[in-house]
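Researcher: Please predict.
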Amino acid sequence: MRNIIIAVLLGCGLLSGGSAVLAETVGAQPPLRVLIDVRSDHSDGEHDFSTLIGMAQKRGIDVLAFTEHDRYSIRFGIEPVPQVLGYSMQHPSLYLTGVQRFFDDIAALQRRFPQIVLMAGTESTPGYAWSGVPLRDLTLHDAERHIIALGVQRPEQVEALPSFDLRNIHGPYTFSMAFWFLLVGVVLVWLLRRRKRAVALLLFASYIAFLATWLGRPPVDADADFIATAKQQGLFTIWAHPGTLSGTRPGPMGVMLETPPYSSRVFIEPTADAFAAIYGDTDSNTVPGGLWDRYLSDYMMGLRAAPIWAVSSGDYHEEGQSGEYLGNFPMDVWADARTSEAVLKALRAGHAVAWRQTRNQNFRVSSLYLEDASGQRLLPGDEALVSPDVELNLALRMFPVPPAGALPDKPVRVRVIVDGQVANVAVMRLDQPLKQGLHLASGAHVLRVDIPGQWLGGMIANPFLLRVR
């Protein structure tokens, strides 16, 4: 049993009013409203940049990130050279519409709309593989297993990604073996009939060496290769929709599409910087005591190299498509400045909360911080040595600010989760900020808050990573 004592002190201060300099600065500025995972007509989205920017401004978005498909290509190829021998079905992506044009358009619109920060990124397929035989049981695996690479600034960063040149795709091995056996067999028979035994022997020996090289080469982890390449380019990587159930279904031309949920892969190193915790589907990654909490606890015990952060990811393509609207899945991000570089830095530090909201909802966090008895304040994502007594502060607001008396007078349930256990469920209102006091035992702790889905939507905050004296 964990030695955690929860002292609920709503409406009264646990800590003294005297604050350190740090306490006066951390959390003083409201976070930026950030929206990522938006597709335009530069790939498979419906709307152009101008239309999307106009909608985002009306909905109070400060930072809009276009994460286009870098290359959306389904290629049926012959192993071990599927990139050379095969057939591709190309879908709209930067590979077709032009990588340079994508950056040129963003730069032009940033000059035209300086009041909103525009960011660029990709949603990529690290690799996929085929199995089975055409017209019988042909199956395409992991084609909808996507990773977002956020923060691209130059065409060469996109073109360097493994997904752009399809280097980690694989054809069906059984079909490929049959193809080479038949091809080499036909040539051998032809050579033997022409009495060219020496050439036939040389061809057969080359075929055996070819098979040994092909079948003996070590497998490549496509996910790890993509993540490593993206990080070398200075990009922020995010697992997109890891728990989706829509990846397994019949596809065109009798092909079976097989991309099962990949939540377990998200929490195995090497992994991305973040994962989509909130998106247009449901999964159990963020339930108290689930995979995320266990991963964070492992990090605090020194078993993981770095924490993995939660983000929201809308997979937006068209207004109203599948009941989704621009801004349904926003984030509140505490950045030092209103620039793409500052936002990327804040995301790397985990200074963010993720939201799920409906079309007519626009609630946001105005402040969220943890303060200890010395006056030290922490933002979500911060890791620090703290005193045993801490206070959680949370305030919410609406956008736009409603007229006087029009603020919804409804309770909001906030869960306080400590080391994977729900330590308390507090109740607050939009006009009554939450002040929640806690006493923690000495040692390492992961403390986070969330708002389970209710009338104002749902929110998941990144954790406070604490080491108690």
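Model: The chain has three domains: 1-30+365-469, 32-168+221-350, 173-216.
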